[in-house]
Amino acid sequence: MIAILLTAVLLPGALVASLAVGANPLSPDTVLATITGGGTAESHYVIFEQRLPRTAAAVAVGAGLGAAGALIQAFTRNPLADPGILGVNAGAAFFVAVGVGLWGMTDPVAHGWLACAGALLAALAVQTIGTSRRGPAEPTHLTMVGVAVGAVLSGLTTALVLTHPQAFDHMRSWNAGSLLDRGFEVSLPLMPLIGLGLLGAVLMTRALNSMSLGADVARAQGVAPHRLQHLVLGCLTLLAGGATAIAGPIAFVGLMVPHVARWTWGTDQRTIMTGSILLGALLMLLADVLGRLLVPGEMPVGLVTAFVGAPVLIVLVRRRRASTL
């Protein structure tokens, strides 16, 4: 209960900080006055044209990655699984590299749709290869196929970038994971996909609780493992693909946040999923704000999550309660 209240307090504070901190800092009073209809013309421009779209993108990306991490860790029963383990992020990066390098597509909106299409096709490829045998694939088999597909796509992306310097220049910011210049024209068309994925992930938590007891027990409780596998892959594609399409590859959020939620709220998938959504949004907001303060010209949020996530994850996985699924 204390953890829930603490998160409920920190999340609004992080939202205000995301609107107030930046190259043109605003006081919390100015932020609140502008949001409620007051403020100056300058504060209106800074908040509604620059920081509000960025804040909304951070919330959507963080919530999507947190839910995707909780989903894949619960389904594979692998505490080290993350949204990229099924090749989703690699597929998104490959399609962006193809679009930029071969077709000269440099518009951030086009990058978003290319990334989403790449994530979808990569997930379909993994699912098709992984379920070629009769019946649903074992989670470990599906994971191995995902790692292989992801490695192939990452190699192709590297080859494309190295042979097309123009692609390297345009992909440098996207590959680092950034929320800079992510206006509503980029994020709004993709937010419904993340919202649909969040709804599906929350609705599947009861079935994931049954699957944690084993496939036979799950069948006895009315859960169809084969159908659940398709639903998990579909929601994972919407969540990770949509988040990657908006901000580029973001490391550690999907891997770390479910551990924190499990450590804080226990092993029930319903509370883990809710906690992962809230903590994912909170972590992205704080990392984005920190990135604006660390260096002049700001540091990409993907680098901040890597610096913050690695030591935190090392501490958490050493705790038996946090790492046990």
From TrEMBL:
One of its GO terms (molecular function) is transmembrane transporter activity. Gene3D superfamilies: ABC transporter involved in vitamin B12 uptake, BtuC. It is found in: Cell membrane. The keyword Transmembrane applies. Residues 1-23 form the signal peptide. It comes from the Bacteria. It is a multi-pass membrane protein. One of its GO terms (cellular component) is plasma membrane. The chain crosses the membrane at residues 57-76, 83-104, 110-130, 142-162, 190-209, 230-252, 272-294, 301-318. One of its GO terms (biological process) is siderophore-iron import into cell. CDD domains: TM_ABC_iron-siderophores_like. Keywords: Cell membrane, Membrane, Signal, Transmembrane, Transmembrane helix, Transport. SUPFAM superfamilies: ABC transporter involved in vitamin B12 uptake, BtuC. Its main location: membrane. PANTHER family: FE(3+) DICITRATE TRANSPORT SYSTEM PERMEASE PROTEIN FECC-RELATED, FERRIC ENTEROBACTIN TRANSPORT SYSTEM PERMEASE PROTEIN. Belongs to the binding-protein-dependent transport system permease family. FecCD subfamily. This is Iron complex transport system permease protein. The lineage of its organism: Bacteria, Bacillati, Actinomycetota, Actinomycetes, Micrococcales.
